[in-house]
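Narrative of activities, Objective 1.

The group set out to show that a structural description can be obtained from nothing but a protein's sequence at a throughput compatible with the screening campaign. Below is one input-output pair from the validation batch, recorded exactly as produced.
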Amino acid sequence: MNTEIVVALIGVAGSIVVAVLNQLLTARVKVQEAKGERQGRQLESQQELINNLVKYSMSSTIFRHLCGIGLLIEYKYHHAAADSREMYFLRDNGFIRPKQDQFLDFNDSTNGKNLVDYAEPTEIGWIIIRLRKNEIPSNMLEDTKNQRVDPSRL
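Output recorded for this entry:
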């Protein structure tokens, strides 16, 4: 066979191989992009689920206590069985912590005291306040003289 023909055949074969490889790579990239988009949608869906689980991990009455401790200058504790349970829920689930090295207890000795002097929201507590800021009780929003934290800045 003639050298020129061999070189031409090699050139044609090389061009065909390059074209096929290019098509394979393009197809592979498209498959990976589709997988990435699908995983992105899955992550968004999972994040929304996690946000909702965190957001609604407590009742509105317990959330009111968390807001009072986090946002107000004065939030007095009134000892009653329901309030005591709700405050222990906040403490035991890590939504509030003591301000100083003291034990947070909610009983007759705490009755009438300003909880803001004793407790503060934890990081997860603040996250929940931010996630549910449109649910902050209206009386806390209206009483601007008693606000320690401006809810519009959350």
